UniProtKB/TrEMBL annotation:
Protein name (database record): Alpha-mannosidase
Family matches, as SMART domains: Alpha-mann_mid (SM00872)
SUPFAM superfamilies: Families 57/38 glycoside transferase middle domain, Galactose mutarotase-like, Glycoside hydrolase/deacetylase
Matches recorded under CDD domains: GH38N_AMII_ER_cytosolic
GO terms (BP aspect): mannose metabolic process; oligosaccharide catabolic process
Domain of life: Bacteria
Family membership noted in the UniProt record: Belongs to the glycosyl hydrolase 38 family.
Species in which this protein is naturally found: Oceanispirochaeta crateris
Amino acid sequence: MNKKHRTHLIGNAHLDPVWLWRSTAGLAEIKATFQSALDRMAEFPDFIFTCSSAYYYKWVEDNAPEMFTEIKKYIEKGRWIPTGGMWIQPDCNIPSGESFVRQMLYSQRYFYEKFGLICHTGYNVDSFGHNGMLPQLLKLGGMNSYVFMRPMDHELEGLNHLFQWEGIDGSRVTTYKIPFSYGEWVGENGTNKEVLQTVSMKSRIDDVKEIGQNQDTAMMVFYGVGNHGGGPTIRTLNDIEKLKNEDETLSYSSPKSYFEEFKNIAKPIPVHIGDLQHHGSGCYSAHSQLKMLNCQAENRLMSAEKMMTTAASLISYDYDNSSLKRAWEEVMFNQFHDILAGTSIKKACDDAVESYNEALSIASRLRNSALQKVSWAVDTLGEENISLSKEDDWILWESENKGTPVVVFNPHSFPICSCIQVNVDIKGVTDNKGNAVAIQKVRGPFVNREDKYNTLFTGNIPPLGYSVFWIFKKKEFNISTTSSLSASESHLENSHIRVDIDPKNGWITGIFIKKSKTQILKTPACVPLIIDETECDTWGHGVYEFRNVTGKFGKANTKLLENGPLRSIVRVTSYYENSILQQDFTLYENKCELEVKSRIDLRMKHKMVKLSFPIDLTETSAVYEIPYGHIHKPANGQEEAAQRWVSVIGKTQKGVNLGFAIVNSGKYSYDIRENDLRMTIARTPAYADHFGERDDFSEYMDQGVQEFKYVICPDQGADYAFLSRRAQELNQELLHIIETYHKGKLPSVYSGIEISHENIILSVYKRNEDNTGTILRCYEAAGISTTGVTILLPGCKQRKIESDFNHNQIKTFLIPDKQSDEISEVSFLEMNLDTL
């Protein structure tokens, strides 16, 4: 055993810009901590300081430019080391795959612009678990190594502190797990109810060196007062100077230097495959509003970018990259692990709500501007000459029963056949070819005498494009339509499935799949369970399963809201003590799924609400969507983080392989034990409660009303590409503009993309940061290596991409504006992969 391994001493200051304080205090602490580090630089000429988070540097650049200039000088000298390659240290489970891309895109380009460097080491030392796609995400963001601390030894056993981390696609990064602590304080015995104590520098170094001897590897020892900043103190550095004189293996260092030491070492490093969980399982569901806003902001920004890029390719449109970037910066900051995880004080969470709303507002304005620019350029007049006048109706511009044009947009890379609801009561609808389509009169979102009805119609919209429909205020069409829909207060049925509802308690008692003649439910499903978690803190430290059921919503009222040719809706309202759960179960004609719009009004403390779905399957396993991928896990009942869908796969009583899935908008926490899938929909712990004193000053999360949607897919849970497409459709809705008559250069229907394989899904279509071309990002969604993929782009001068995708692979293509320049595959940083 080599006992002369170098010990790398990593001076740092863990900075939580928000936690038990608001960002005003956190931002002040950044400047104070940075100044303290500069002071230590002058006092200790060999001292090296490591600091992550591009946001901190930008804040100092904007607010204390003289300090920024001094920091830049030390960076040039190699004594101040930017690391991490992300905007902040985010939660590593809840953000979407694209959010991780933006964390790296904007941060790495900032570091390159200001300091001429790219961070090659990822650094999320306090994040509460790490998803299994991070190795690929890191590598495509320019990083080939990673540093983390949680989960700790008692939460995930068997890990060496230095190992190769292999993601679900096979990508690997060299990874270091910090022993004990990233700062001056450590927890006694690694228990959940930690008693924090200060340990001498010598004792900490000796403990870490012992681990290094046992694992035969060099180690890093992190030091510096953290959480509320501070960094290395004079006393600690004086102690280190003395210890260095006594031990030649000790040296000031950085993670960058540590990983460079291993480049030429032939000794194999242990490999860990999959994700790094669990720490703080309650963080997957704490503070529903923040998680919902994050989901909405991510999706609205991606939708806006796609529509803006489409507008820029079709007409003269000024793509506003700076406003998009500003909105993404709001989102990225709020993905800090103590914000998005829901573990901060209430006022800090309230600040984040305001910030998310700013991002949402920016995205809405930009998207609307692009849509209106395109819709106004569509030729809706043809050879006719109609003068605009509202003589026939006070809302629509329809003239002489010729109809009013409605331009419907599809932001996805696959065609959509879906219902469109227009905010008027009309008598007829035709498509762009003049064919009449079926309609349904539905209740509108307002109460205004007789003007309270909307109209629903079904349309086929081409991918990344639009189609014009014509709505008629008075003109009716004779359509011979037959609908398989039937409904009552206790059932919904179409040609694909029958759903039975118990009107007494509001639970679903059966879902019968007609094609396979399968009753998929084992016992009543969609049962709202009340879980007591009084003994749990906000994070859920040490709690891996939430199973203490103490009640259920019941005493239901059911009502048939709609029963038409296009959709039927049954509303179920159930109660538990002073809380109310309202769910609208919607079945569409010709769809084998049940869409559910939920509204819950909570009045309880230290409780969790789960919807239980016991499925009649055996030999089950669980599949969870994670950022830009999915991961298979045992159905062992542990609480798991998931993105937009989760699935139970197994065998029916007839031995047929089947998958039952839930697709959702804004819920991230699930558990699956054997055949029972449970979705966590609300949680009411105290704010920032780490086993502290609960008293009259405590404030509680998820009080009052929240709304969300989910879709029950009873037989397509094994088709992961389908689930990803359905999730994208649910979270990025079709958009429409009710137009008028005008000339234009654009046709009545337009398709912007064609992808040869359904498992290759477009996630991003945007202008590149240098404004010299278009960025197109796709990912393989089924977990199947796919060759011969062709992507046709009519909007980009009929350019064509031909490529192969490995399973779960993400690819980013740069399509130059110059037709003579070749399309290239680039990194997330929008630079050539070979340059990183």
